[in-house]
Amino acid sequence: MHRRDLIRILGLSALAGAAGRADAFAAPDAAPALVGAQTGLAVRPPDVELVLTAAPGEVSILRGAPTRVSRFAARLITGPADTVRSLRGSYLGPVIRFRRGQKVRVRFDNQLAEGSIVHWHGLDVPEAADGHPRLAVGPGREYIYDFEVTNRAGTYWYHPHPHMRTGAQVYQGLAGLLVIEDPEERALALPSGDAEHLCVLQDRRFDARNQLVFHDGGMMGMMNGFLGDRVLVNGLPQPTIDVDAGWQRIRLLNGSNARIYKLTWSRDVGMTLIGGDGGLLERPLRQPVLTLAPAQRADLLVDLTNLPPAAELHLETLSFPERDAGVVGMMGGGGGGSVPNGAPLRVMTLRTRARKGLAYRVPERLSTFDASWTAASERIRRVPLMFQRMQWLIGGRTFDMTDVAPEEMVAAGSTQTWEFHNVPNGMGMQAAHPIHIHGRQFRVIGRTGGDPNALREGLADAGWRDTVLVLPGEAVRVQATFTRHPGLYLYHCHILEHEDMGMMRNFRVTQAADV
Ligand code: C2O
Ligand code: CU
Ligand code: CU
Question: Core-most of 233, 253, 337, 423, by most CB within 10 Å?
């Protein structure tokens, strides 16, 4: 049966609309209607339906003139009232809250002056819902996403993914958090409400008229990645958050284009990590610092019960040698920024109220992982990360919209070990690359090689990850079980300028039989 017939039979006019865009790029191989059809002809209506609009806007960020930005806005059509919630004072996309098991439909309405498409970073969704750049829709057009929330509870996010324009669009303000809840996490009764803070860290640069300054697309800015000269949290410059003197849960996303943070608290409270990209860790981890690369998330607990009223606790990024994050080009100096990677900066402040807050005992065990992940996988695929002919290459290649190399074919649901090797460059150019794989979360199973590097100390490799930082010279092995959805998916460096200049590749998930 043809897809068009199925669409007619199922009456999926919305899907037909999405698939029927007049675009130059090919439609996904597994068309939305087919995916819907295979998952049951008794089409269950979505539990959550919302419209997500991207449009230009103006906000007041600094004193004086407003700043022109791009903004996501969401309108809930059906679903629990707390599905969409805006972050106080923020121009970033609203926090979207899903519950595991929900069936979701999102209508993305592109009101920008250019093409775009939204990607649900960290989510395991069908090909047609993954936001591949070839699915971008033009100004005034709509794209419909249908998927089921199968991920664990955790801190995920959404952002545009159009070809060569991801960095610019995210920088303009198009990014938002996506929180998934499930019973396992709820049972831990983690600090919530006023004691839970969702924080998106992004560095930005403004001109004298308060307008965002982005790099000019010149080679150096692209090769290094864009760096701003100040850190915003949820779009606000160095906010101070008033909190009760109790336990706090801080959920961080590094939503920066290229800045790597080496985070610590200004008082000796240590970093208590309870979750990463893909939700809860098995056990809490206590470490002095936390390295957070672009796209990575961290879920932290901090105990303020013993602080007097009006005490301040700063979240700071520590100084480290710029070279440890990367230096490209004769000039060095990340993207021509006045504040290079490794510059110490204050990120935000927690200030205690007189009121005593929540007491909490961090459970010794947060989750139980299936032990099978440590099992040796059938084969190891070596993926060199290299700089050659003025380009960042991944597996020796640069991005092509539909190209898939033989070693980029993976069977649906199969498990493989991929070793990313950040190959030293003879000309002394190097960069730490946060490598992200779409689809399912993976495990980091080992690191070898590389020079001493100040970022190594705080690396968060534990738990389920979708983005792993590969330091210069290192070989990092990850064990990935690929999505069960067939189709074309991406893996790439999440320094958005690297991604936009082609440090990205497709992999094709095939039905087990045809590998
Ligand atoms: Cu966060 Cu392919 O992206
Ligand atoms: Cu992603
Ligand atoms: Cu990179």
Answer: 253
